[in-house]
Description:
The protein is mainly alpha-helical. Helix content is 62%, strand content 0%.
Amino acid sequence: MTRGNQRDLARAKNQKKNAAATAGRQDDMTPQQRREHDAAQLQAKAAAKAAAKAAAEANGGQQPAPPQKKK
């Protein structure tokens, strides 16, 4: 083999990268539980957005200005 342990080093580097990418995930959930959890979060987000829209309409139809992006 002409490349020595390059394949092993690349494999270890890739595993480390993938571990960092999935660090925040909740891997203890089944796919069904994950779907239910995600659906509940989306419903909560939609309800919050609807409440903000209703509040804006109650204030004369003006919505608050979106946050400015930092340059």
